[in-house]
Amino acid sequence: MRFIEALTTENPDIAYQSREKPLQARLGELLALQDIGAAPTAVAGAGNRADGLVERVSTTCGQEAVPAPGPVTVDGDVQEWDTSAGIFICPDTQLLLGKAAAWAYVMYDQDALYVALDVADPTPLSNAHDPDSEPGLGWGGDCIQLRLQTDRVTHVTTWYSKARQRAVVHVAYGANFDEGEIPNAAVTGDVAVAFRERPDQSGYVAELRLPWRLITQDGRPRVAGQALALHYDLKWGTRDHPEVSFADNLASSTTTREGTWRNPAAWGQIRLAANGFRDWRVPPWLTPRRARAPTSPWPFTTVSRRRSRASPTAR
Predict the structure, then answer these.
(1) Predicted confidence band at 55 (pLDDT cuts at 50, 70, 90)?
(2) How many domains, in total, are found in the chain?
(3) Closest Cα partner for 250 from 203, 309, 300, 215?
(4) Which of 101, 134, 141, 197 could link 90 by a cystine bridge, Cβ 3.0 to 4.6 Å?
């Protein structure tokens, strides 16, 4: 599998210095570049489907975790983050780009794995589930679910409870959720989570610190060159069941998103990189129609297929 360090500079027109771009600016630029009213057209190397239309579903198969450049303060503000290896997640880049989409970033150090998501959501932080009475039902509204596999399988569901006005980190172990759980790991000393609503109420940023002892059996830190599975399972909703549910970072052999929430073999890899990366490039499925067609493929494996909705019962 090719990772982001294989980036070239063959397409400088769609590459730029990611560290100099605020998170909001990235999404804003992509929104502005998307010609929503135009009919879809085929773009060479852009995830074309058999029917000649451009694939509108983000499909990422592999991501990098970069070293934390310094101390990380978990406060929902990721300005101190190295965001050079972020990926964009969206179930439909024409219809849902500003409504149900997210940038996902991963960093690490000797103590923990850090995950941050900048989520577009017109009704941010509206999960009504009470972590005290229904700790296992956080997936029923706005939430972020992370499926991890190291030497153990860990399901992390984090959300901001509107009922209790506090952040929750529910942890369950085992592919089938049968190897124990922690109703709210956020109350432990070394697990940290923060949610911050965007100033314009168009979404929120979630920031997580997951110590290695929480997501590994042996408690040992992972180092550069090693890999683990990390599958994103994102939910948007204000009631008892998600209105939008979408999973990304898939194993390259995965052909459907149905049931991936309990299938570790379907989860994409995260490789711990030794360094951050200078350039960020718009992936094929977000290539602006007015831009010159790329002459080389996006370094991640892009699976071209018709959209597959997440299972309505997926957790």
Answers:
(1) low
(2) 1
(3) 300
(4) 101
